[in-house]
Amino acid sequence: MSDPTSRPARTSPNYDLYQRDIFKAGSYGVLSSFSTDPDKLESLAKEKLSERGWLYASSNAGLSLTHQSNRRSFSSYSILPRMLVPTLTRDISTTLFGHRIPAPICFAPIGVNAIYHPDGELAVAKVAGELGLPYCLSTASSKAVEDVAAANAAGGPKFFQLYLPHNWELAESLLRRAWNSGFDVCIMTVDTDHLAWRHGDLAQANYAFYYGIGNEMGWSDPVFRKYLEEKGIDPKTDPRTAGRAWIDTIWHGKAHSWEDLPRVIRLWKDISGGRPFLLKGIQHPSDALLALDHGCDGIVVSNHAGRQVDGAVGSLEVLPEIVDAVKGRMTVLFDSGIRTGADVFKALALGADAVLVGRLWIYGLSIQGEHGVRHVIKSLLAEFDILMDVAGYKSLKDVDRKALRVSGLTKL
Predict the structure, then answer these.
(1) Which has the closest alpha carbon to 333: 318, 317, 312, 347?
(2) pLDDT score at 316
(3) In angstroms, rounded to a whole number, what is the distance separating the alpha carbons of residues 400 and 412?
(4) What is the DSSP string of 305-329?
(5) How far apart (Å, rounded) are the C-alpha atoms in residues 132 and 126?
(6) Would 6 be classed as within a structural domain?
């Protein structure tokens, strides 16, 4: 809140000044477009979206027990504030895969963004570029990879999330397009060879791809277009059949195994000149070690935000075990359940190198498009920056397990 002209220089942006800007605008009668309180944000998104859009954003596996576990896991840890620490020059920047980024926060890969707003992934990628934060594009994108890259033109690292097709020629085409468009990290999701039983989606037969939404990555791909032509399927006149063909190619019918991993890693490394390859969906220390043994450069500790395995552990619950297992030999990102600046802090303290945020920006996109995404993410950045200040942590290197207690009783 201090006057920005009288504060010492920092090596990371003054994200906290967004709070000052909001208060200043309010003093002239201009209030924020909407509250970023996570519960209110979720409620407003529900009001704005169609029934199908809301179901796609909110449906979890089974009884949502894993989704609930994610939140309980965060509540199990308490932050230990430190006082009289000179934090005005704090630094929350970090380095990820050779990219210097201003904060340890990335945009999680989420598909079918056009179901939330017509601009879809283009709006999200644009904001990520403006902020210089890593943006991860889903294979299930509703926009072509080339168009998303153009929207991200302001800068920032770009990662590509891969659903490995059952056709290796198509896999190579997708990866080459991503690399040629400036996406230099590949994150392969491994927990979604079959959709979980999601009651809400099933009740409304809410599967966007079968309605012709979220298939643009395939429909814009030369290899897949050739396949459609051979089958006599035209996406323009028969989007439902074309949509089924696409999603059946990248998801359904065959689960991948650890035996497939060396080939896809080699393919990506050859295309990209050796750039990082990660697995997303790791929830067990043994799987983390298998990923390491198979040549992965990193993992994303994630349970798909509770959308795949009902009754599973919360991602934060297993994060320390996984970090201890890999012993700094690979990058560990964290996903599933991040809602606040305190959540970011706790995940970093337990060993994550950075976090991925998803549903928050979905809600912002749903409420107000590009502006909504910008407001949500700038608010999260400000909240985390301010928390580092008031909790007395000057640098990310100071945020470790000593900064937390379990249930307010046990020191880690």
Answers:
(1) 347
(2) 97
(3) 10
(4) GGTSSTTPPPHHHHHHHHHHHHTTS
(5) 10
(6) no
Q: Is the pLDDT of residue 24 over 90?
A: yes
Known catalytic residue: 252?
Answer: no
Q: What is the C-alpha to C-alpha distance for residues 332 and 228, in angstroms, rounded to an integer? A: 38
**DSSP per-residue codes, 141-175:** -SS-HHHHHHHTTT---EEEEE---S-HHHHHHHH
Give a yes or no: residue 5 inside a domain. no
The helix (H) or strand (E) run that includes residue 259 is none
Q: Are 107 and 135 in contact (CB under 8 A)?
A: yes
Write out the residue range of the structural domain in which residue 189 sits. 17-411
- Check residue 211 and report its DSSP letter: G
Q: What is the pLDDT of residues 148-189, one digit of tens each?
A: 999 999 889 999 999 999 899 999 999 999 999 999 999 999
Binding residues: 56, 109-111, 138, 161, 163, 189, 198, 280, 302, 304, 307, 335-339, 358-359
Instruction: Write out the two tokens for 111.
Output: 């598909």
Number of domains in the chain: 1
- Judge whether 4 lies within some domain: no
Binding-site positions for FMN: 109-111, 138, 161, 189, 280, 302, 335-339, 358-359
Q: What is the mean pLDDT of the chain?
A: 95
> Which comes out higher in pLDDT, residue 412 or 143?
143
Q: Which two tokens stand for residue 139?
A: 């294979």
State mean pLDDT over 71-92. Answer: 95
- Does residue 97 lie in a domain region? yes
pLDDT of 255: 78
Cβ neighbours for 30, distance < 8 A, ≥ 6 positions apart: none
pLDDT tens-digit profile of 232-244?
A: 999 999 999 999 9
Question: Which neighbouring-strand residues pair with 95?
Answer: 100
Of 67, 256, 284, 304, the catalytic one is 304
**CA 2, CA 314: separation in Å to the nearest integer?**
38
Contact 141, 217 (CB under 8 A): yes
For the chain, how many residues are written? 412
Task: Tell me the CATH number at 78.
Answer: 3.20.20.70
User: What's the sign of the alpha-carbon dihedral 115, 116, 122, 125?
Assistant: negative
pLDDT band for position 193 (50/70/90)? confident
Mean pLDDT of 298-303: 97
DSSP character at residue 258: G
